[in-house]
Structures are given as C-alpha cells and as structure tokens.
Design goal:
With 904 residues, the protein is α+β, with helices and mostly antiparallel strands. β22 (432-442) and β23 (449-454) form a beta hairpin.
Amino acid sequence: MSLKHRKLKAAGWPLAVIAVLAQPAAAVAQYAPVPGGTTPSPLLSPPSLPSVLPGGIPVPALPPAVQQDILQRILDASGSGGGGMAPVPARPPIPQPLPAPAAAPPAALAAAPEAPLSHTEAFYAARLDVALRQFGYDTFRDMPPGGPAAVGALPDSYVLGRDDEVMIAIRGRTRQSVTLRISRDGTLLLPDLPPFMAAGRTLGALRAEIEARVAQELGGSEAFVSVGQLRQIGVLVAGEVARPGMQSLPAMASVLDALAMAGGARKTGSLRGIRVEGPHGRRVVDLYAVITGEGATPDLQLREGERVVVPPLGATVAVGGEVTRPGIYELPAGAAQAPLNALLRLAGQPLRPAGNRFLLQGTDAGGRRSFSETGPAAAVRRGDAVLVQPGADVAAGQVRLAGHVTAPLLRAPRAGGLRDMLHDPRLVKPDPYVRMGVVWRVDPQTRVRHFVGFDLGRLLSGGGDLRLAENDEILLLSQADVLWLASPPVQRALRGEVPPAAAAGQPALDCPALQSLAVAARSSPARFAHARGAGFPDLGAPPCPQVFLDYPALLPWLLDQSVLLSGEARMPGLYPILDDTGLDQVLAAAGGATDTVDLSAVEMSREPAEQAGAIPLSRTLLDLRSRNFAAIRLSPRDAVRLPRGFGDRDSGPVTAMGEFLRPGTYDIRRGERFSELIARAGGLSPQAYPYGAVFTRESVRQRQQEGFSRTARELEQSLIQVAAGQAMAGSRAGGMDLGGAITAGRELAGALRDARAAGRMVVEANPVVLAARPELDVLLEPGDLIAIPKRPNEVTVVGAVLNPGSLQFTTGWRSIDYVRASGGQQRFADGSRAFLVLPNGQSAPAGLGSWQSGGPPVPPGSLVVVPQDPSPYETWGFIRDITQVLGQVSISAAALSVIAKSAR
C-alpha cells in the first residue's frame, strides 16, 4: 500500500474506498464524471462505485451523495483533481436502463464438465471398477460467492451488537422516525431520552425497553422498533477450503455461509469434524447432520471473533451397488469404524427391502484386498468398500403372456391356473388359432425348456385347465401363424433347403426358425414326412411371423404336432392339435369343406403310435356322408385328404365371340361339344362366315410357341455351322456376302422368337355340316375361344409382289389372278413356294409355278403369301425350308386379326 493510501486509512477512510484507490489509473478512469450529455459510453457513464471489490468482497450500499463525495476524493488523491478538472457536483446519478438478462444457455452448454476424481475417489474406483463421488461436497458448488442475503424479519432472539442499525418510529402525541446506529461503547442514544445499553441484548428485550421508555417519558405515544442494516463481522476460515482467509459476513451468517464465502471445503477436508473456535469456547460441527437430517442439528450460528477450521478428511468408507445414493462417506470425527446400518442410512438404504447381499472388500494385515460376506449389524472399517447386491438376481413367481394377445403381460401365477389367467377373453386378439396354445416351461431341476400344448378353444369355453408353474411363458397363436406352416418358405425348409443368407455364412437371417427347421429336416428326413408330402403350391414368400422370430424352436415343434389337411378344404394346410382331437374341430379351423368334396371316400393316413423297426403307414377310406366328423379322432402326424367329387361341370369357361346371336362366356360340362355351344349361344347370325371361324386353345398355343422357339434355335445353330465352315474354307462362297446372310438369319430367328402364337385349330363351324358329320364336332376344353367373323369380301396378297394389299373377292379367281392384280411377282420372288392361307386356318400351295395350273379357287378371306427366293442361302445349307414356319406365323397373325375384329 502506498504512503498516500496509508494516510487515507489513518484518516478513517473506509476499506472499500482504499481498495478502489489501489486499482490502476485505467480502472479508476471508468468512474470519471460525465462532462455533459447522456451518451452511453463506458468512459462517459455516470460515476458509481463497484458493487464488489477485488477478491469478491461486497461494498455496502451508500447513498448517491456519499458515492459522489468518495469519488471526488479518489480523483483528488490520485492527482486528477489538480489537472483542471472541475469538482464533481453532489448530484444523484442519472438512472440507466438495466441490461437485459442473458438468455439461458442450452442444456448441453450449461452442464458443467465432470470434475476429475480426487485422490480418495480414485482409490475406491480402482477397487470397485466404478467411479463413486465423495458425499456432501457438491453442497457448496452452486452457492453464490457474494455471501448470504438477509431475507425476512429478524427473530426476537437476535443479539444486537455495535454498528447494528436500529429504526424507531414514534406515533401519537409525538411523531418522529429516527435511524440510529449502536455506538462503539454499545449504547443507543434516542432523542429526548437518556442513552441506554443496547449491545449484547436481544432484539426482543431492546424492543420492550424502548416501548416502555417511550410510553413513560412521552405519554400518549407508541414506539415501533425494527432493525435496518446489520453489522458485519469478520470470521477467519482456515484449513482445507478453497479460499482460506478472513471473511466479512453479516451478523446473521452461519458456518455454511462462511464456508461458501471461502469457496467450500475441498475434498481433502472433513465435513464431519469442522471446528468453530472463539471467545465463547470450541465446538465441533458435523455437516452430515445438516445435509442428511440424521442426528441432532448442530449449532451453526457464528459470533464475533470466532473462526472456522476445516481439518483434513477423516476415515472414509465406500457404499456402492443397489442403494439409493451410492458414494464415499466419511465416518464420524475420530471414529475408525462404524456399523454398516448407519452407513446404509447415509446411502439412502438399499433399493430392495429384503434379499440383499453385502459384499465387503477390505484389507488384511498384509495390505491385500480381501472379500467377505457381511451383515447390516457388522462394523465397517476405514478404507472398506461395501457392494450391495441382490441375493439372487432372478425373476421368481411370474408368468408371461405373449403372442396373439392385445399386449404382452407379466403376472403372478394364479391359483386357478391358466383358465384364471385368461379369465377375460378380451386379452386375446381376434382370429386366434383355438386348437393349440403353447406353454414354454422350464424344468425346475434341469432348467431345460420344453413346450406344453393346450386347447385354447376349450379353455375359453370353460373347459379343461392347466396349472401354471414359475417362469412359464404362455404363447397364443393366430390363424395367420398357423397358415404360414404351409407357406413356400416352410416347405422349402422341410426339403432341407437352407435360406440363402445362412448358406453364405451371414449371421443375420430374416427368419432363424427356418434354419432350425432345415437342419432338423436334414438330420431326420422321416421326421416331417407327413408335412413334406403336402404338395402345396410354391407361390410367393410371406414374411416370418413375429412369434417365430421370438421363439425359433417353436416351428419344428408345431410341425411335429400337426395334422395334414389337403384336398377340398377351404384352407388346406398343417394344423397343430392335441391328441384325440375331433376332425370336426380341425375342419372348423380350416374353414370347413368345400361344396365339391366327395365325403364318401375321405382318406386318412396314420403312422403307428409305437415305432419299432419298420414304420408302416396305414390308410383308411372313411364314408362321412353322415357328416359325423366328431367321431373321427385325430392324432399328431395324421394326414386327411378330402377328395373332389366327380361332376359334369368342367373346371373353366369357354368364350364365344363374333357372329353368335348370344355371344359371351359359357361354362361347360364334361364332354360338351362345339355344336352344343352354338345352340346355347342361339346359333349364328345371317352374316356369319363359319368357314372363317377361329378356334384357339391354350394347349395348342403352347405347342406352337415352343415350335417357334425350337425353329429359332435350329436356325441359329445353322448360322454358327455356316460361319465356322466358311472361316475354315477361307472363301466368300462365290462372291456372296456371308455377313449379310448371317445378319438376315439372326433377324429371322429373332422374329420367330417374338412371334405370338395364337393356338389356332382347324375346326368345322357350320352347324349344318356338324349335324351331318358328328365326327367333326370337336370336344370343348376350358379356356377355348371361338370367334365367328362376318363374311369377308376381300382377298389379301402379301410377300414378294409389286403392290401387296387386299383385293375385292371375285368368284372363280385363283391365286395367279390375285397376284397379277397386285402387280405381279418381284424379281427375286419364288412362285413355286407360294402358299395360300384359307379362312379356316388351313394352308395349301398357291399354284404359281410354271408347271402348276394356278391353284384352286380362292375363297373370300384368304391370304396369298409369295415368299422370296431362298436359293442364295441354300448354298450354305442353313435354311432348308422355312415355308412351314412362315405359314404358321401367317396363320397366327390372321387368327389374331380375326379375334381382334370380333372383340370390337
């Protein structure tokens, strides 16, 4: 401190003013007076004293006039007053708007970083493999450093001292209000009253004396006494605290306030042996009693001249595991051990009320860690760690309801068994599979799980019950879960086909139950023989139900318990049942039998119950026309086939198009003929042209399409042979372009593949001819299509002619006449191979050769085809004769054209 500052102190200047004087000139400049105006600048703002001095010491609130006087003296003392600056007038400061409160930081930014482990915490972390914190030290973390604030009225027990401010209001005959401060000698001087002693007295006693004096000396007046500004006391805080030293506190401050002003106790300091020493003696404060509420509340009030000493940390014990408040706890001051019960109370007691296991990790005489089981009444020594664990961390006395339920439930097994568990049918979702429910049970001795089946429908109807055991899981199946047993993925797994993901060695499978089933089917081929012979269609790949994802072992077990229902059932499939289940119940689960079933020859297959050596399979034909299905008792692995009855109705319709009086789609009976269909359709119209009838059949279309593909393959093979032969000969075959020929051949092969076969058959469609010659009346098949066109009046000429197109029909004309009318043949036409496509689908030579007579008369609606000369390609022998193929393509094109016209 400079000489000037020491003179100020000797003159009685407050410490707050001297602390401001000790700041550098740049810091003092911010308190310079405002020369004029109200520009908001840090250098031009109204002078004011700081609220907190360096070191965190608060400055008492002073009136504005006093602040201005102090600032002027500061400037004079620093040498600024003689520099021509006018003295600061005693005026109140100009009020400035308060700054807006800062926005709260986000939670991620506001969270303080985790403090590093202390030496004690690191010691226990190495033992327990978990970081525990010392208890109680975070109490001072969020306390403001500015000291306590006086809130509310002072109690009458408050002991007054010098520098306390007493406010007295007198009302009545005399009206006055005074604010007095207790003098250094402890007296209080009231106007018009003799002085009296106030220091050391309680507020209640002082209030009673002042009221009595006013009532005696100033008759007719009443006094009201309160305390204004409290005095400041100096308390020395020493020992293991963050900022030891003298702390200035209000007279009402406590030990907690003193510790908060000193930054709180360090983790190397004790919270249970804090010493408070002073003129009134010495006492020990245990802050655990304040933080936890356990034990007697200590005396925390501070008095003038006392000091607070935080000694080093005493003996500690760690309590971890399943307790409410795991942490590191300090033993009482001077104690080397304590009962475990007391430490458990500090830790908030174990989370479970009973069944706890206390593992004590201590230190033996050689310094080695030792483990032992202990009890709540045992003593725990310094440095011990107690881990609270469950005696047996297993679930006991519970059952689980899962699968096709509204929500999975955990319940205690009831005395009434499974029926009482499912007492409310609304627990089950709609459309359950009622013939089989499953209980996944644990054997109490071997702890091996196995499945136990029960009849859900009988149970929901109030029938048989099943007693539940501990840890049972009740699984209910849906109708969709059971229908999935007959799905293509399951059928492939029954054949031992492993899903692709498992074959590639990948651990993740869409349905692990399928892999379990495939392994079981491969290891024992005869195990699922009844399910493998179902013959269900391999269509689609439905996803794996959730119950088989959760319980993969359930799928093979259900197949072992299933019966095969095939044939004329509405939903054929594999249905799990219990032994001695009626066929009526299985049929009800499958939706019943269809209307086409033949109940006189129901076939049932069964394997013997006792299998020794050979396994004979017995088949029985049952006559169930009486519909007494309940008399047939089924067992798992049985197979029931419901045959279809023989009927006249065939399996599909036929379509009549074009010039029928009643065209449309007709169902047919077995053996129905074409003439019968014509009669059912009302006969033919007067414009009908039976000779041009188009009759298509699906089986014929498939054979024709296969013929096109086969011819295309043969043509491509011939192209390869020709190319290979010419490459070896090294010639161009008399100057012919081999590449162009091969390109043309490939295009022809592609055209043959793309050609659409019509499946046309040559039939007789004239009802008069069919009546005279019944052998020409064709038998109908499902899917047949018959189109009768109107009588045409044109003949079409295509191919190697000068002007291909349709010409008007002329009676008596032959193919040569229509070719001439189309401009004649082109230069490279091959008239000897020209052919005629008749309206009924037959083909015949056109007769255009020089040695031919022009061919037969051409009926209306015919097609004359004049091909090109294939002789250049015959040099290599890869095109022998395409006349037949071109004729088939032309017939198909003509048939499709007639069908398209008839459909309009």
